[in-house]
Amino acid sequence: MNFEDFIKLGQVRRASRDEQLAKSLLKETVIDMEFFGDLEINEKSARKLVSNYYDFLRSILEAMAALDGYKVYAHEAFTYYLKKKNEEAAAGKFDRFRLLRNKINYYGRIISVQEAKDAIESIKDSIDYLIKKYLGEMR
């Protein structure tokens, strides 16, 4: 499968470049991350925090896609979007985060505090990398 397949399936739509949407998504994600950064990761919060940090990463990918003229309706398509941008490592990480979030949200997976801390740090690193490389001029 590749990114073009998601377009053919209607799970990604070509659109006009939307710089305003990208700016808004970036701004709100940064604000949300500042708020969530103050929260303690413990046994009660671990699963929700991982899920929310995944959503922050997805919002950054939505912003990037908006700049490239795409509207993405399937989370899995972002893996192939990153591959299309020659971001193989980022694509692999995103897919691991996506699968972890799905297990947490849809299959009741329990996540340890340490696993949550590790996942959140890795997600933050991915977000920082993508912002610097693709959205830095919007800050």
Structure summary:
The chain has 139 residues and is mainly alpha-helical. The protein contains six helices and two strands, in the order αβααβααα. It has one domain: Four Helix Bundle (Hemerythrin (Met), subunit A).
**CATH H-level superfamily:** Nucleotidyltransferases  domain 2
Q: Count all strands and give the number.
A: 2
Low-confidence stretches: none
Q: Tally the helices: what do you get?
A: 6
Largest sheet: 2 strands, antiparallel
Query: How is the CATH topology named?
Result: Four Helix Bundle (Hemerythrin (Met), subunit A)
First and last CA, distance: 34 Å
CA-based gyration radius: 15 Å
CATH C-level label: Mainly Alpha
- Mean pLDDT across all residues, rounded? 98
Number of domains as seen in the coordinates: 1
Series of secondary-structure elements, N-terminal to C-terminal: HEHHEHHH
The amount of beta strand, in percent, is under 5%
How would you sum up the global shape? Answer: globular
Widest beta sheet: strand line-up: 1-2
